[in-house]
UniProtKB/TrEMBL annotation:
<dbReference type="InterPro" id="IPR001107">
    <property type="entry name" value="Band_7"/>
</dbReference>
<keyword id="KW-0472">Membrane</keyword>
<dbReference type="InterPro" id="IPR036013">
    <property type="entry name" value="Band_7/SPFH_dom_sf"/>
</dbReference>
<comment type="similarity">
    <text>Belongs to the band 7/mec-2 family. Flotillin subfamily.</text>
</comment>
<keyword id="KW-1003">Cell membrane</keyword>
<feature type="domain" description="Band 7">
    <location>
        <begin position="5"/>
        <end position="183"/>
    </location>
</feature>
<dbReference type="Pfam" id="PF01145">
    <property type="entry name" value="Band_7"/>
</dbReference>
<dbReference type="InterPro" id="IPR027705">
    <property type="entry name" value="Flotillin_fam"/>
</dbReference>
<dbReference type="GO" id="GO:0044853">
    <property type="term" value="C:plasma membrane raft"/>
</dbReference>
<protein>
    <recommendedName>
        <fullName>Band 7 domain-containing protein</fullName>
    </recommendedName>
</protein>
């Protein structure tokens, strides 16, 4: 529902969607929310506060307090929470406030004597007001007005009555004393007045004469002072006038100079403006002439541009054709060279394959003995002959040792089926039987030891 509070009221709302409490003058109350209306108008509370002085003398303090909430959001929320527990016009709220006021009053009275309370009633009441106000701030309340009445005795403890009677008696006695003193003063005063009249008359005459003389002297002093001040004032005015004239002359000179400067500036400004306008006019004329020349030249430039573009296109086409012909020639040459290299590679590969096949067959013939194959290839290629020639050249002029030897077993090579071998095998055998003496000779003559033991062993006849 939609609720609206009166001018002196507030709505305090709680429930779903509200973290603590919400204050409003008007609001929609949604499902799951609750609202309470409370008034902020001050309320009068009357109390008879029972207290006791430091001498344990009880008394009653009648008081009327006008109390209401502070009109700001924070204090109104505090006051609204208080009213959620007790009604605004309930006895519970009345007792709560009474308890605060009585408690502060009792604490304050317990630290004072009855005489202090009675003699300083105004100060006591102010202290009560201050203490109560401090405590009420915890509830969001303030005292708008307080009326603390005269202190009242507790029945059977008539302290204030006795104090009143005492004061009344003292006042009556004091009045009697005052009357007697007044009569004494009246009789004595009459006599004193007569004598005083004579003395005062003589004193007044003397004082009058002295006063007249003093007044005359003062008048002359004032007159001299006035004349001196007048002279000083006139001199000061003349000085000020001279200073004003000097300032005026200076300002006139400055104004005249500024006027001349302004006139010169105005003249020069006009000249500058005229020169600027002339310059602008010449620029506009030059721009117009440039546009005319540009328009007349543009057509010729356009024709020349088109001719140049056509010539450039023709030259570019010719260069493209030449580049394509050159590229075709290079490609043909590269293809021919590649074909030649391929054929050379094929020939080398065929030769290598033939050599590899030859070496493989020979290695198979020597039973896989690489050293024997190596020695055979050296014999086949004349390596030993070259070594012998080199050795002969090296020992020329020396007396070398000469070894004479013939075929294997001292008899040269045979041509029959010696040892049951085929003729081709016997021929190879004869060659290898010559190798040991040859290597021995090389080692003896040059100091070079040839690795022929394995070869020799390989060609020994098998039994």
């Amino acid at each position: 529902m939609y609720r609206v509070a009166k001018a002196n009221e507030y709505l305090i709302i709680t429930g779903i969607g509200i973290e603590d409490v919400k204050l409003a003058k008007k609001a929609w109350i949604l499902p799951g929310q609750r609202s309470t209306t409370f008034s902020i108008a001050p309320v009068n509370y009357s109390f008879d506060v029972h207290a006791m002085s430091s001498e344990k003398l009880p008394f009653i303090l009648p008081a009327v307090f006008t109390i209401g909430p502070r009109d700001d959001e924070a204090n109104l929320k505090i006051y609204g929470k208080l009213l959620s527990e007790v009604a605004q016009d309930s006895q519970e709220l009345h007792d709560l406030l009474k308890g605060v006021i009585e408690g502060e009053t009792r604490v304050l009275a317990a630290g004072m004597t009855m005489e202090q309370i009675f003699q300083g009633t105004k100060e006591f009441k102010q202290q009560v007001y201050d203490k109560v106000q401090t405590e009420l701030e915890h509830f969001g309340l303030r005292i708008y007005n307080s009326n603390i009445k005269q202190l009242v005795d507790v029945k059977g403890k008539e302290y204030f009555s006795f104090m009143g009677q005492k004061i009344q008696q003292e006042v009556a006695n004091q009045a009697k004393v005052d009357v007697a003193e007044a009569k004494l003063k009246g009789d004595t005063g009459a006599k004193e007045r007569a004598g005083l009249t004579l003395r005062n008359a003589a004193r007044v005459d003397a004082e009058t004469k002295i006063f007249e003389l003093e007044q005359e002297g003062l008048r002359k002093q004032r007159q001299a002072k006035i004349e001196a001040q007048t002279t000083m004032y006139a001199n000061e005015r003349q000085v000020e006038l001279a200073e004003a004239n000097a300032v005026l002359a200076t300002k006139r000179a400055a104004y005249a100079q500024q006027t001349k400067i302004a006139e010169v500036e105005a003249t020069k400004t006009a000249d500058i403006r005229e020169a600027e306008l002339t310059k602008t006019l010449e620029i506009r004329r030059a721009e117009a002439e440039m546009e005319r020349l540009r328009a007349s030249t543009l057509a010729k430039a356009q024709v020349d541009y088109e001719i140049t573009v056509q010539q450039a296109n023709a030259k570019l086409y010719e260069q493209q054709k030449q580049a394509e012909a050159s590229r075709y020639a290079r490609e043909a040459e590269a293809e021919a060279k590649l074909f030649e290299q391929q054929k050379e590679a094929e020939g080398i590969r065929a030769m290598s394959e033939a050599k590899a096949d030859y070496i493989g067959r020979m290695l198979s013939a020597f039973g896989g003995n690489h050293v024997a194959l190596q020695q055979f290839l050296m014999l086949e290629r004349g390596t030993y002959t070259e070594l012998a020639s080199i050795n002969a050249t090296a020992v020329k002029g020396l007396q070398p040792k000469i070894s004479v030897w013939s075929g294997a077993h001292g008899g040269g090579s045979g041509s029959g089926g010696q040892g049951g071998l085929a003729p081709e095998a016997n021929a190879i055998k004869d060659i290898y039987t010559l190798l040991p003496p040859l290597h021995a000779t090389i080692e003896e003559q040059t100091g070079i030891k040839m690795p022929m033991n394995n070869v020799y062993t390989a060609v020994q006849p098998r039994h």
